[in-house]
Automatic annotation (TrEMBL):
It comes from Methylomonas subterranea. SUPFAM superfamilies: Cytidine deaminase-like. This is CMP/dCMP-type deaminase domain-containing protein. Residues 177-298 form the CMP/dCMP-type deaminase domain. Keywords: Metal-binding, Zinc. InterPro entries: APOBEC/CMP_deaminase_Zn-bd (IPR016192), CMP_dCMP_dom (IPR002125), Cytidine_deaminase-like (IPR016193). Residues 289-320 are annotated as: Disordered.
């Protein structure tokens, strides 16, 4: 038996101490240590979280700085990524938030990688809860009344087929046209973002979340790293609706590009049982194939969104409107050209992922800008017939114009 004072061997049936000197000393106490990162993540609340409770944080010196959240749609890992932390790994306790693992330039780890007395898990830390949360920049606009009385946009989006022939002047035909207007609005948002110099704009991808009645509930633009357009859009919606666990039923999402792997993960987690996701331009990279599992190209369901430009762009053909690729001249005398935006952008790109090339291609800004020109042209067009189709188109175009005219980027 070791001596409780000095640890030397003793004669157990004679004395528990090794010498008379040791008898006069206090028993040796075990060394105290600060809790480790492993210890911190072994608490019951973290290991077996209730409801949507989740945490995420990183080590700075001897501190483990972390955030808490009670909503998986607003995961603490986003706040940790927004906080300056160098290249340190970020640890979280919920796999449901790990859609971030699919984004480049992020180092997010689940707590089960930590080991007791080994590696990062053995780091002695003082936990520090951070309460001032930072979020990716978001797009806001003036609150406006929904333009489609009685709704119906989702039903049209979920059933529309390119072979459908809607009766001229009908409400369904107006709703089908409205789908293209909202996609044009997503492209136009990028045009505005570029002109206004929105902070951190990357890759020129935009996304809109639209209700069944045509109200734009949230919007996002790509501002880099994990802050892709769809992520910004969803985080904006859930910030405005912190008790929601999914986007609204019967809603439609419009993205200018096929969702990537990470955005597909978040969209899958957040979408409702009744929702439709459309994209404008197909991403030719491997992530684009993953995104097509939950989304469809709008141009394959209805007539592709067409931009409008006063300058001839690559691919101009003889006058006459058609659904061909590139740019189609409306009138030789007016020098106004119509642009099938998805094909026009694709023609600017080289090999590989389109997402990384859009902002660099020489003609892409002009093609994106043509969406704004097309919307303005449609808004100024007189519709005096008073049919159900005209009423839907006019209401949606007026709404989109007012929404785009008041958008701004905020923290």
């Amino acid at each position: 038996m070791p001596c409780p004072v000095c640890g030397k061997p003793t004669i157990p049936w004679f004395t528990p101490y090794c010498s008379s000197v040791c008898k006069t000393k206090e028993p040796k106490q075990p060394e105290k240590r600060n809790p480790t990162l492993y210890d911190f993540f072994r608490s019951e609340r973290i290991v077996n979280p209730r409801d949507g409770y989740n945490i995420a944080g990183f080590v700075v010196g001897k501190e483990f700085r972390y955030f808490e959240s009670s909503n998986l749609m607003l995961p603490a890992v986003v706040n940790a990524l927004q906080e300056p932390h160098g290249n340190e790994a970020i640890y979280t306790n919920r796999r449901e938030t790990m859609w971030l693992k699919d984004y480049p330039l992020t180092k997010v780890k689940f707590m089960d990688v930590l080991k007791n007395n080994e590696g990062d898990g053995a780091s002695e830390v003082t936990p520090k809860l951070l309460t001032e949360k930072k979020w990716p920049r978001r797009i806001i606009s003036t609150e406006l009344a929904a333009p489609i009385a009685g709704g119906g946009l989702y039903a049209c989006a979920s059933k529309v087929r390119k072979t459908d022939t809607f009766v001229e002047g009908s409400r369904d035909r107006g709703l089908a046209r409205a789908l293209r207007y909202y996609m044009l609005a997503a492209y136009s948002l990028l045009d505005i973002s570029n002109q206004e110099g929105y902070q951190g704009l990357k890759n020129y991808v935009g996304a809109l979340l639209v209700s069944d009645k045509g109200e734009i509930l949230a919007a996002g633009i790509n501002t880099g790293k994990f802050r892709h357009a769809e992520v910004g859009m969803l985080l904006s919606y859930f910030r405005n609706n912190p008790h929601a666990s999914s986007i609204p039923q019967n809603s439609v999402i419009f993205s200018t590009l096929t969702p990537c792997r990470g955005c597909t993960g978040f969209l899958t987690l957040a979408k409702s049982t009744n929702s439709v996701i459309y994209f404008g331009q197909k991403d030719t990279g491997k992530d684009g194939k993953i995104g097509q599992k939950i989304s469809s190209p709008l141009g394959e369901k209805t007539k592709a969104p067409m931009g409008r430009s006063s300058e001839a762009l690559t691919g101009t053909v003889e006058p006459g409107e058609s659904e061909g690729g590139g740019v189609v001249s409306l009138c030789a005398a007016s020098a106004i050209h119509k642009v099938q935006i998805d094909n026009g952008l694709a023609s600017c790109m080289g090999e590989g992922s389109i997402a990384t090339q859009i902002g660099k291609a020489k003609d892409s800004r002009g093609i994106i800008g043509s969406a704004s020109e097309a919307l303005i042209h449609k808004m100024l067009k007189s519709r005096t017939g008073g049919s159900d189709e005209d009423l839907i188109k006019q209401a949606v175009l007026t709404y989109i114009g007012q929404w785009l005219g008041s958008t701004k980027s905020v923290e």
